[in-house]
# Entry
Amino acid sequence: MKNQELAELLFEIGDFLDLGEVPFKPDAYKKAAIAIDSLEEDIFNVYKKDGIKGLEKINGVGKSIALKIEEFIKTGKIKYYKELKKESPINLEELKMVEGLGVRKIKKLWQELKIRNLKDLEKAIEDHKVSQLFGFGDKTEKNILESIKFLRQGQGRFVLRDILEEIEKVEEKIKKIKEVVSFSIAGSARRKKETIGDVDFLVAIKDVSDKYVVEKIMNTFAQMDSVVKIIAKGETKTSIKIKNNLNMDLRLVSQSSFGAALQYFTGSKEHNIALRRIAMKKGYKLNEYGLFRGEAKIEGEYEEKIYERLGLKWIPPELRENQGEIEMAIKNELPELVELEDIKGDLHCHTNWNGGKNSIEELAKEAINLGYSYIGINDHTKSLKIENGLDEKRIKEQRKEIDILNKSFKDFKILQGSEVDILADGSLDINNETLKTLDYVSISVHSGFKMNKKDMTKRVLKAMDNHYVKILNHPTGMIVNKREGYNIDIEAIINKALKNNIAIEINSYRGDLNSQFAKLAKERGVKLVINSDAHDKKELKNLEFGLYIARRAYLTKNDILNTYEKI
Ligand SMILES: [Zn+2]
Ligand SMILES: [Zn+2]
# Structure
């Protein structure tokens, strides 16, 4: 279904129009975008059934927008969008990545200071011009600068969630070619690293000397719609740049070397060096073409067999960092890593009782679709005014709604949790009498990020001493590639979690806790919980990204609270 892609395009058209001086129009595009985004039916079907007329029935879609949707359905593109982007002096994509910069602020920066891109913005901040603008101020200027610094650090690095769609597009295109025997993603994306530099694909065909087939595959890859630049195109490797400056490489090998190439190009470098050393000790030579004894190739087609020949169990890609996994594989002591199928429910999602998009019932139904046994509603509490957090009275009202809904399910349960705010002094913003009525209590820090380490640690430790608390959400406050965490003594937090039997969250959206600390928590005997923090039912499936962190942290099913039928 392309509804989301279309909605995004329309929304961006609205953004571009917002930057200009066209009255009314931007709202129309945004309204249409929101309607299409929440449409249950595939937009292609709507068009197939009733043509333009059907499209015009969608909220906010008039004749002119309907024509553009038709163009999208027929060609996959909207010319008008390309024109707007080309004509606009402003690099909207780049500026929107800065935390706290929306279109309205970007427009102001352009009108007043002629800021077109990040570079202009940095310069203006250096000259302290931004803080003098109405609606900005010193604090905003400082925040913007910090966000830019962070973006620069992470520049060229991507979060898997943000590029997954592009990866899937390549997969779909290449796998369709009938001569392709094997296909895999390789590199850090296969290892599911927290951030990824570029994406490597590996494709095998029977015979790499078949020029016609080689050409066909390389052309398919290089001519995808998303390609903005072909960096190099050859017979064994093609490199492209797609939008957002993401580089992608496709390597072509013969099927008889596929396993060796996959092992080699998955990495990490450290893992591969250690593995080659083992091969040498055993009198073999290991490279991207195969495992050799002298001139004779012993293995090449299957990755698993290469590990086997070296006397190792196959190692899941997530663990391949030479951090002890090789020794464990030799001794057959690799943990059985947690799988997506092990997850029985999500304990952190938001409904339209606060900042979320969907009703409790809609979230529950989606959770049932995902095969879960339960879902934990984890709405914000009253201190988080911006999210319309719940007070004691509304928590009670919500309970009633949940109780009624629960009567309609068999083998499924909605749990009422709450993402209770940890106030600056470490107390919670909901009274114990109400906490007692909840199925479980999660706690989070959402304010005062600039506290020093000692005070922040004290604050969270105190909150963890409330004996109703079951889960500590996103314990460091970081958002991978976007925001640094606050200062906190994570070891002290882990020790307290052990003492008070509190589970620590791996938040799939934020990437917090990271795999290094999650591993430490496991080693200390603390349970973890993998949650989506969904604010939209579509985001429930993002839990997979937290799962990758858990796997990189060597976690098994038993280490994770929400793999249990009952929590
Ligand atoms: Zn939160
Ligand atoms: Zn949340």
